[in-house]
Specification:
Elements (H helix, E strand, L loop, with lengths): L8 H42 L6 H15 L8 E5 L3 E6 L1 E7 L2 E7 L2 E5 L1
Antiparallel strand pairs: 1-2, 2-5, 3-4
Helix pairs in contact: 1-2
């Protein structure tokens, strides 16, 4: 029976690859979470537009501010603009999320806007 010595290169390579995948997933989660919150906020805007005929502008703004607070959006997301015309309504907001990555702090701008005609 011949015994072969293992050098350990494949184990180290596997460990490095696993570490790389975990690092990408960890930091990708931070970026993905910012986009997920933006999607949830825009979805709340769509819902408010759907029922805009039954709600006043103040009610719409109050509901969206409460949603922004509940999902943890930055302060800028609470500046909501509601514009009504004879033919429709538009709701817009603009805010910046700060995402921390290794050796880098990134600002991502979001400008959710929803419109509907009556």
């Amino acid at each position: 029976m011949v015994r072969r010595l293992r050098r350990g290169r494949t184990n180290l390579g596997c460990l490095f690859g696993l570490l790389l995948v975990v690092a990408i997933a960890y930091f990708g989660f931070n970026v993905g979470e910012a986009y997920w919150r933006s999607y949830k906020f825009e979805d709340a805007m769509r819902q408010q537009v759907r029922f805009a005929l039954q709600r006043s502008d103040r009610q719409i703004v109050a509901a969206l501010r409460a949603k922004a607070d509940s999902i943890g959006l930055p302060e800028g997301a609470r500046r909501i603009q509601v514009r009504r015309t004879r033919v429709g309504i538009s709701i817009a907001a603009a805010y910046v999320e700060i995402v921390e990555l290794p050796l880098l702090v990134r600002e991502i701008s979001f400008t959710p806007r929803v419109e509907r005609t009556f």
